[in-house]
Amino acid sequence: MRTLWKDDEAAACNSELELRVYTSRLLGQDKNLVLHGGGNTSVKVTEKNVFGEEEQLLYVKGSGWDLETIAAAGFAPVGLEHLKKLAQLPALSDPEMVNQLVTHQTRATAPVPSVEAILHAILPHQYVDHTHADAIIAITNTSDGELRIREIYGDTVVVIPYVMPGFDLAKLCVERFAAEAGVNTIGMVLLNHGIFSFGKSAKESYGRMIALVGRAEDYLGQHNAWVTAPVGGTASHGMELAREQAKLRADISKVAGFPVIVARHVDEKSLAFSRRADISIIAQQGPATPDHVIRTKRLPMLGRDVAEYGESYQQYFQTYEPQAKERKTLLDVAPRVVLDSELGLCAVGKNAQEASIVADIYDHTIDIILRATALGGYRALPAKDIFDVEYWDLEQAKLRKGGKPLPFSGEVALVTGAASGIGKACVESLLARGAAVVALDLDAKVAALKNSASYLGLQCDLTSDEQFKRALVQAIEKFGGLDMLVLNAGIFPGGCRIDSLKSEEWQKVMRINLDANLMLMRECHPFLKLAPRGGRVVVIGSKNVPAPGPGAAAYSASKAALNQLARVAALEWGADNIRINSLHPNAVFDTGLWTEDVLASRARHYGLTVDDYKKNNVLKTEVTSKDVAELTAELCGTLFAKTTGAQIPVDGGNDRVI
User: Fold this and answer.
1) What's the CATH number where 16 sits?
2) Residue 176: its pLDDT value, please?
3) Within 10 A of 197 (CB to CB), how many other CB atoms are there?
4) What is residue 35's three-state secondary structure?
5) DSSP H or E segment with residue 538
């Protein structure tokens, strides 16, 4: 632990709430303290209401906000005295607790307050910080965790046995705090859950958190349980393992009932952990903290028997659901973490962002398990406690806040020629529909086109079989499979009549526009066959297929041949549930081929203005890259689920085509 507090940054804060935001972000920056929405913070302030009366408020982190990026708007102001009165009630149901929190906010637009708002309110300090520090969890998740915590901290912390977050936890903390807190108390440890610090100022509360967690880290170090050197061997890569990963993704998607992203991680730590001789023991105890269960499920899957994992999960549900206070509906039974000696750690999510969160959480879980093991043995909470959190309505609400999934959520698209023009627009359209997108281009700028967990940009020469195969393996390792293929890359050489067309030029056009696409289709076919909703291929053809023009023999012939290849593939691949359709754009001028000078020159050649030249079609409309991209995406969607082998013009109406 090291403090990130800077006096000059703190001095720029103009209120207690701004200081609360500042130190909350400092905590959020350290993933060893909180991960993806974990932890919560608060500050108690006095403000005047509309009547000019002073009232005490608790500004507490709102549900759905992340400490790393939280703003003032992310804190919910709740009447402090009302919260303290709630803590005195003998019982309070979860729905009524949330109702009381929401109806006693002073800002209608505020987020729903943290379920631990009452706990924050009853602590007699202005600032309260709560984290799920790895070092603390590693110590508490052992058979003698409470004794170790008391050994480390003495009377500087109050120790709370595990109770599910919410009203019951707040009540227990009131009792324990009253009985155990003294002049030396600066924090509170919740076994199997996390740690609280508090103070009269933002700096004091934050500093105490860093110091308290630092003492836990020192303790682990003194007991040779801090550094756990991995020995994982060498990771394997290649097409065969990529196909195994894609098969795993298909199996998981089938059990889940929807497409998923399966991201492979073969860093040394993940690989070493997956290959441990005792993996069936240490990885089958439960999550590091109960709230992780809504992301990772209670247990990871060992190996690749998805059906067996699903049956085991159903048994878990059938065992503990009857013990719940109210009836529960079975969630999907698919794993979220897979540990496999060959594939390493595979993180599963409904989209790439979810898979990334799962990977982050389990990466820290590995550290916690290994450190607890070094202390004598990792021990998670009983399955019943984990079930209660997994099926807790308040936790499930966090996941439901995402709303209805986007149409291509969990699916993977590969787009060629993606750095500009139609290809770049296709990337945008597919991402907007929730797909994870692999973008290939000869131009290196494709790598930095997007900064998103759902995007992978790779420089690739498609005329090289080896380069493409490497790129395809990278794509599968990143996302787990392939559902959609957009064949867009191609070249349009300058006008040249047949009597002047050199063989080298002809062969170059054929190599890029035709041969490369044959290779792509061949190599992608095994993965498209495994697509949970069926594979889809869209070929970006050309108006020159149905209506060629003079001076474009190589281009027209290559596109016509590609079109014929697509028609044959539609016939051959229908049995594999892969559909293939072609788009034939024309006069798409917002691409790299059409500079302002070229446009002006061509318009003058036809005696037209540039605007009229752009709209020189039957509908008198301009065709853009986005127009082509939107129809490309729609061809991959449900509207065209029963269409294959089609050829659709995107040209505003061309009299020669018509």
Assistant:
1) 3.40.225.10
2) 93
3) 26
4) coil
5) strand 535-540
